[in-house]
Design goal:
The protein is α/β, with parallel strands linked by helices. Helix content is 32%, strand content 21%. β9, α9 and β10 form a beta-alpha-beta unit.
Length: 354
């Protein structure tokens, strides 16, 4: 089981929308909640249609269209997305309208666009794609479930190219609610200082990232996505080590073969310990890279990490903004992504150079 990454489109709090550059310029934020830098939507969506779309729908469509264009694929054999919150802004609008109007005279638009599969459905409508279309809503495993479905489909069916992605947005109401239970930092933190933070909570984020995964290897592929593993509520660090070694062994590798590890450190002192442990034990000889200081913490942030890992393998460079320690000793051949959300949903992705 495996797949080749043929095209990428990503909207994030950084200037990542242009697939020809790789963090040549980073945006320094000083906040406890990051917002995406949005592209010029009329290039991808009819302005008449866009007028009725929420921000996350437009971000998702734009990212999907760029990834298809990048892969030179006009019609995917399937569209699979993952989202933890769906179109949260429209959900809020509908609920507020219910309260303010005493559940009467409600416009249906916000309700119809509040469902979690709205983004994948809108992409299919724009493409006139009648193929398999599915959205996974599994909290911190949402994007991983979508990727796993795509990889299994490529291995077990006639599908050749699948559009797979993730999207989640941050709204003021959701931020305030989750901040009360300790998700986010009370204070504003500069992007370059996130990993040095000594307080509880992380900087919230959002984003939309789409990838075209293909069955057959091509000349312009970014990387090979070989496998992934999900670990729900591991009992301790040793169980995590066991699962990572299991993942590597299944692909004929050891920890010594991993050139770079992309860690999901978020600056939350409660939950960053596992990353430091792995950095000092299993992967003490591997280069370390971060991603959450640039995109923030959200339940499908591993999609940003996948973009970062794929770009590293294709360009054979590690931008200064994400480098945590040493450069790899030689050519980057194997990259591991390790991430978790609130120490509950743990994920490992294994990628290799094409």
């Amino acid at each position: 089981m495996g797949a080749y990454i043929k095209g990428i489109g990503i909207v994030s709090p950084q200037k990542t929308f242009n697939t020809k550059t790789f963090l040549t310029e980073t945006v320094e934020h000083t906040t406890n909640s990051l917002r995406c830098i949005e592209p010029y939507y009329p290039e991808f969506i009819n302005p008449v249609l866009a007028r009725r779309m929420s921000r996350t729908i437009k971000m998702g469509i734009a990212a999907a269209m760029v990834s298809l264009r990048d892969a030179k694929v006009e019609m995917p054999d399937a569209i699979i997305t993952g989202t933890a919150l769906g179109c949260w802004e429209d959900t809020e609008k509908f609920l507020v309208a219910m309260i303010e109007n005493s559940e009467q005279l409600l416009t249906p638009t916000a309700f119809m666009q509040s469902t979690h599969n709205t983004v994948s459905s809108q992409i299919a409508l724009l493409l006139k794609c009648m193929n398999y279309n599915f959205t996974y809503v599994n909290k911190g495993f949402s994007f991983e479930s979508a990727v796993l479905d795509a990889m299994m489909m490529l291995g077990d069916s006639d599908a050749k190219n699948i559009l797979v992605g993730a999207h989640d947005e941050m709204t003021e109401k959701y931020f305030n609610i989750t901040k009360r239970v300790g998700f986010w930092k009370e204070e504003a933190v500069a992007t370059s200082e996130v990993l040095r933070s000594t307080t509880n909570g992380s900087v919230s984020g959002e984003g939309a990232a789409f990838f075209v995964l293909g069955k057959e290897k091509g000349e312009d592929d970014y990387a090979q996505l070989r496998s992934l593993k999900m670990i729900f509520e591991p009992e301790n660090e040793h169980q995590v080590e066991e699962k990572i070694n299991e993942l590597l062994s299944e692909n004929g590798l050891t920890c010594a073969d991993i050139d770079v590890v992309v860690y999901g450190k978020s600056g939350d002192v409660r939950y960053d310990k596992i990353y430091s442990h792995l950095e000092d034990t299993l992967f003490k000889n591997s280069a370390s890279v971060s991603f959450k200081p640039l995109c923030g913490e959200y339940q499908t942030s591993s999609s940003f990490a996948l973009w970062e890992a794929a770009m590293m393998l294709k360009t054979q460079t590690i931008p200064t903004a994400i480098q945590v320690n040493k450069q790899p000793k030689s050519e980057m051949k194997n990259v591991l992504i390790y991430n978790h959300f609130m120490n509950t949903y743990h994920t490992a992705f294994l990628l290799s150079q094409c």
